[in-house]
Amino acid sequence: MISTWSEWKRYPRPGRGDNIEAPITPGIYEVRIAGTGALHSFGAVDNVAQALALLSVGSRSWFGRRDPATLPDLEYRTCATHSKADRQGGSGAHGRPPRSLYERRGVI
């Protein structure tokens, strides 16, 4: 059984000490650019919190530094599932495309 989507939350910016609020269970996440609503990334993963924490949100320079002003302002939402089978059986419910779209993008 798939739970409902969380509300949109602001993705933490580096150096501000903010936390990601997400389940440590299998599920689906979606990240969008706050100003435009354009899709930044999404995934069906075994650990939603870990996937969001490891998400690459900006370009890396050769010197390992990023200019915080150039990072996009992001928002994220999550949908926890009880099992891996639940997250892969998406039928378009909960406002997301059917499983075949995830497969074409290499998420599942």
Polypeptide structure, described:
By secondary structure, the protein is an alpha+beta fold. Strands 1-4-2-3 form a 4-stranded antiparallel sheet. The chain has 3 helices and 4 strands; from the N terminus they run βββαβαα.
Could you report the average pLDDT, rounded to the nearest whole number?
A: 76
- The sequence of SSEs as H and E is EEEHEHH
What is the SS-derived class? Answer: alpha+beta
Side-by-side strand order of the widest sheet: 1-4-2-3
The geometry reads as globular
Q: What amount of the residues lies in strands? A: 15-25%
Gyration radius over CA: 14 Å
How many strands appear in the DSSP assignment? Answer: 4
Query: What profile does the largest beta sheet have?
Result: 4 strands, antiparallel
Low-confidence runs (pLDDT<50, min 5 residues)?
A: 97-102
Beginning-to-end CA distance, first to last residue: 18 Å
Q: What is the helix content?
A: 10-25%
Number of helices: 3
